[in-house]
Amino acid sequence: MRGWSIPLGRWAGVEMRIHTFFLLLIIVCLILSGGDNPLRGLGLFFAVVAAVAVRETARLLVAAWHNLRLRAVLLLPIGGFFAYGNPESQEKSNEGSTQFALALAGPVANILTAAACAAAFLGSAGPDVALFNQPFITPTWLLRSTVWMQFGLGVLHFLPAYPLDAGRLLRGNFARKHGLAPAGRAASGLGQLIAVAIMIAGLALQSPWVVLAGFFILISAQIEDQGAFFQTVVDTVRMREVMLTDFATLSPSDTLADALARCVHSLQEEFPVVRGPQLVGIVSRQRIVDALRNDGNGYVQSVMSRAFQVARPEDTLGTTIRRLTAGRGLSLIPITESGRVVGVVSVQNLMTSMALLSEQRRVEREINGN
């Protein structure tokens, strides 16, 4: 989500990000304006942004109505992707009634907004708007373009091309019968085929907007396909395969000066705090340094965090990643077995461990093949 996006801040506690494809869209709008009046090109761009904003606002309201906890929203020119804050919200969003409400909210909001804008423009400007003249979307007629941009985005999502709304419903029905991963692959494949067909139709009709719609659907389907592949990976890897078994711990009775000396000889950013075999807290290296600077020497138990989550060796990587992303400021999860810490997983080591695990599996396949 962060690789090709720009942060827009937080809205109602949800991180908002905009994809860099919007920069491409600005260039297209300026080209269509002919360069003589760039302000009209920018006006056309903001008509696209307004259509996406209407759609995603409606979906956010529906998500709030269904008590779905959102962590982030990535905005693309054809809509947005939701990242949920906990597994419960993710699962609930795939349930029949909730999924249908989320799928219907965006298109209905866009079509109703198009109707309201058309009525307002016709009422104030009369026939001068020339609502049904072609081209429907052009920088020369921004009022007409606003209406058709809203209407077009709404109608677009009735196509069964994943990740459009109708495509999401199709994937949901398929997933209930055949499983989430096969459904994701099938839906994204169908979405890419439909996207290519839309691009070909756009070329035949000489419509840059139809070509762009197909292009953005194609890219979005590929993003979802990669996400489905990643999901199949993280749901098959167990924590015992990637956890660090060589790690340092601290005791709540350790002084901060002693703890700092341990930090010097460790690459860990955070340390499990154990009393005997029992995990009682987590403390970060930075917290130890700050406490020494501000308050002088003390004990680890006075600065450790007692709010932490744990995982078991048989838990999947996907479950643990969701715990890491759901916990604010959480970057380490201890792996416990019978109440004893047997390993740790941190954000810093996770990618390295995954890369090494992949290489290990490749070597094992070659050895078994020989």
Explain this structure:
This protein has 370 residues and is α+β, with helices and mostly antiparallel strands. It has 13 helices and eight strands. The strands form three sheets. The chain has a four-stranded mixed sheet with strand order 1-2-3-4. Helix 2 (38-65) packs parallel to helix 5 (142-156). The chain is elongated, with a radius of gyration of 26 Å.
Write a concise synopsis of the structure shown.
With 370 residues, the chain is of the alpha+beta class.
Give me the strand/helix succession: EEHHEEHHHHHHHHEEHHEEH
Query: What is the mean pLDDT?
Result: 84
Number of strands: 8
| N-C termini distance | 40 Å
SS field, number of helical segments: 13
Overall form: elongated
> Strands of the biggest beta sheet: in what spatial order?
1-2-3-4
Helix content: 55-70%
Kindly estimate the percentage of residues that lie in beta strands according to DSSP.
5-15%
List unreliable stretches of 5+ residues. none
For the CA atoms, what is the radius of gyration? 26 Å
The biggest sheet, with number of strands, parallel, antiparallel or mixed sense and barrel status, is: 4 strands, mixed
Computed structural class? alpha+beta
